[in-house]
């Protein structure tokens, strides 16, 4: 799937949560020929934001323009994915009244703003100590490591291989990754796999054991424990909540 906006370079979307801030300019969503696509979309208009949020955020205001500065780690999270998947379930079954969807839209905004607040606090904390300093080259290598993980999150390189790739010691790589992204390498891999697994729950032709194997787990019990650690609920519970 590709998004093409007037005056901007087209961007291809990988599986995940993506943000499009549009100010009335034409845009296109392009689907690959012969490929089945499924996604959940939420459109938030400036008048809704003004009605819901004006005067409700202590010490600050919020406008649609603020969203231009949002980064994917602030909105492409397991928690937001679960909210959107629940929305998809209710849309498919037409099982909720309009106020439910309004509440969920506000919940999405609040979760993003909370994540931004946490990130601001984390950035301030890491700047208070010399050992938390990352050079420009350190940051470049850390970002390269994340890109390598994203390319093959289901069978990622080992930490040893990643360290060799960017010519850093294992301890420096692990410390730098957590410092920059606020999560360990192992934790990031687990979260991304569990986000992938959450989407697979929609396929009722797959058993939990099948999904565990597809997410890189040989043991279904360990998969369930990891899934619950990330999403807060077991895979079977969430599947039932989807009405499957």
From TrEMBL:
Domain of life: Bacteria
Organism taxonomic ancestry: Bacteria, Bacillati, Bacillota, Negativicutes, Selenomonadales
Positions of transmembrane segments: none
Gene Ontology molecular function, alphabetical: DNA-binding transcription factor activity; sequence-specific DNA binding
UniProt keyword annotations, A-Z: DNA-binding, Transcription, Transcription regulation
One Pfam family hit: HTH_18
Record's signal peptide: none
Annotated organism of origin: Sporomusa termitida
Chain's gene name: rhaR_3
Domain HTH araC/xylS-type: 143-241
Keyword Secreted: no
InterPro entries the record matches: Homeodomain-like_sf, HTH_AraC, HTH_AraC-typ_CS, PchR_regulatory_protein
Annotated protein name in UniProt: HTH-type transcriptional activator RhaR
């Amino acid at each position: 799937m590709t998004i093409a906006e007037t005056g901007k370079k087209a961007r291809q979307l990988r599986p995940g949560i993506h943000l499009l801030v549009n100010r009335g300019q034409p845009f296109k969503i392009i689907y690959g020929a012969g490929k089945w696509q499924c996604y959940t979309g939420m459109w938030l208009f400036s008048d809704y934001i003004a009605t819901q949020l004006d005067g409700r955020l202590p010490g600050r205001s919020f406008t649609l323009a603020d969203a231009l500065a949002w980064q994917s780690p602030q909105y492409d999270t397991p928690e937001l994915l679960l909210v959107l998947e629940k929305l998809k379930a209710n849309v498919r079954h037409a099982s909720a009244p309009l106020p439910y969807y309004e509440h969920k839209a506000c919940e999405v905004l609040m979760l993003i703003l909370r994540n931004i607040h946490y990130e601001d606090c984390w950035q301030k904390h890491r700047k208070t100590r010399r050992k938390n300093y990352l050079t420009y080259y350190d940051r470049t290598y850390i970002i390269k490591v994340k890109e390598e993980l994203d390319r093959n999150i289901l069978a990622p390189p080992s930490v040893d291989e990643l360290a060799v790739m960017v010519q850093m010691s294992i301890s420096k790589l692990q410390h730098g990754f957590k410092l920059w992204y606020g999560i360990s390498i192992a934790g990031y891999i687990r979260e991304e796999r569990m986000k992938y697994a959450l989407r697979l729950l929609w396929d009722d032709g797959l058993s939990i054991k099948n999904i565990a194997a597809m997410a890189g787990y040989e043991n279904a019990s360990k998969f369930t424990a990891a899934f619950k650690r990330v999403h807060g609920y077991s895979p079977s519970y969430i599947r039932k909540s989807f009405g499957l």
